Amino acid sequence: MKQSQTFIPTLREVPADADVKSHQLLLRAGYIRQNTSGIYSYLPLGKKLLQKIEAVIREEMNAVSAVEVFLPAMQQAELWQETGRWFSYGPELMRLKDRHSRDFALGATHEEVITSLVRDEIKSYKKLPLALYQIQTKFRDEKRPRFGLLRGREFIMKDAYSFHATKESLDEMYEQMKQAYTNIFTRLGLNFRAVIADSGAIGGKDTHEFMVLSDIGEDTIAYSDQSDYAANIEMAEVNVNYPRSDAQLLTVEKVETPQQKSIEQIANYLNVKQEDCIKTLVINVDDELMLVLIRGDHELNEIKLKNALNAKQIEMASDELIQELLQSEPGFIGPVKIPSTIKVIADHAISSVVNGVCGANESDMHLVNVNPERDFAIDQYEDLRFIQEGDPSPDGNGTIRFAKGIEVGHVFKLGTTYSEPMKGLFLDENGRNQPYIMGCYGIGVSRILAAMAEQFQDDQGFTWPKDIAPYDVHLVPIQMKDEEQATLATDLYKLLTSYRYDVLLDDRNERAGVKFTDSDLIGVPVRVTIGKKASEGIVEVKFRTSGESKECKREELLDVLQKFGGN
Prior knowledge:
Layout: H1 21-28, E1 32-36, E2 39-42, H2 44-63, E3 67-68, E4 74-76, H3 77-83, H4 85-88, E5 95-97, E6 103-106, H5 111-119, E7 130-139, E8 154-164, H6 167-187, E9 192-196, E10 205-213, E11 219-224, E12 230-232, E13 253-256, H7 263-270, E14 278-285, E15 288-295, H8 302-308, E16 314-316, H9 319-326, E17 343-347, E18 356-359, E19 365-370, E20 380-382, E21 400-415, E22 425-427, E23 433-435, E24 437-444, H10 445-455, E25 473-477, H11 483-498, E26 503-505, H12 512-522, E27 526-530, E28 538-543, E29 549-553, H13 557-564
Parallel strand pairs: 3-7, 15-17, 17-20, 25-26, 25-27
Antiparallel strand pairs: 1-2, 4-6, 5-6, 7-8, 8-24, 9-10, 10-21, 11-12, 11-21, 13-19, 14-15, 14-16, 18-19, 21-24, 22-23, 27-28, 28-29
Helix pairs in contact: 1-10, 2-6, 2-10
């Protein structure tokens, strides 16, 4: 491709509204352009990278016998109403009406559509298992689109769905998909980890995320420094064996704590450790108010609480509700002498508190020497806190460390979450109707592009791996008006393309410095410069990542490229 005939609008200045390096470089190198907040156009270079990423994905999906389809982006509301997600998904679901005032949604995901398709066609266990996938644009009205392609309102996704007659069949496909994802991200050269995760709005159980390690990642990964254990911090289990002091239990006393509301304030004011304080939270769990107890040095993990109680929705109670329930303002509430109708859920660490501190349910007052079970009852103990760096690894091997990650893939065991409410049924081998047992497997294709852009870069621009780069070779004649340079450039272009190299020929009438700057910015793995020695048939070959350069004769160029691994 001649550079003068393609569309690569490079920028010299860093765009003011681009916060992270990958976003800046994708804009500066002419891979993408923003249309509006969270919505982007992919220019020729960006489209070529997407096609290469998609090719790897298709190869690995086909290898596990998944079959490609293409589903509608506009989805009728009735399908989402069957599962209840029309009402529960939230404002991220983009909704619209057609000219007949019928409700539709722009596809944020496709569980309902694929289930409706299969339920109409697959009626027997003999046609199962079945795995279908697509690569398509998705739409989510993100509250805060940010970091370019990493969190947008319109994005490209590969989503696959599998249908099974037995849990064993689903387990087998799940492991195959996990391995396929591992193959995909390995082939793309990404530094990633597979981590235990939460299923979120998709539903289902048994799920793993694939996270690319990056300082700009929005998710925190908890991993062992001595094993392969890794989990999203929201799902990381905590070792529940807490040592308990054998100190004598003291008598409860009420003490004044004027305006001392936070755990930090209380600990400093009473000269106690934060771990000796009991944090009491009033949580609205599916319209039932409960007290949740967390040790003062820990933080409540709301996802763990939601999962432990099998709740649909949880939220912090308002100040007004707390006042109505306990006749106290927040900051001074506690579990002692509360109405017997209020359920108390505690993190396991609360059992280790001896002679602790909690609110007295009275403004500016706290209780000291409080002990669980003696002074207040606990209905249920659960693992409710966030794991902390330095905690023992849940698998018993090593210590927990934290890292930031960008989620690029997610695999779920959905079970019958969608097939049961949508009556997706098949006849089993005994002639009985059974709901499909389903799996769901997603990859953020445009997110991969952003994650790769974050990983493969230096101060000059992109350093793409050779198998993913938009072009194999960048031919850069210093002066196209020079007949010998132009002739050699044209001859080399024909030669390399005949050997199936994808070549970008910079035939622009630009200064050498501009051409070299653009070449480094774009990130083609090999640059072949044609300059003053063109009359001798000598060119300079420079490798983008290593910075190594060497001169070679025209007839040696193919050998040099093949040693680099170009073909």
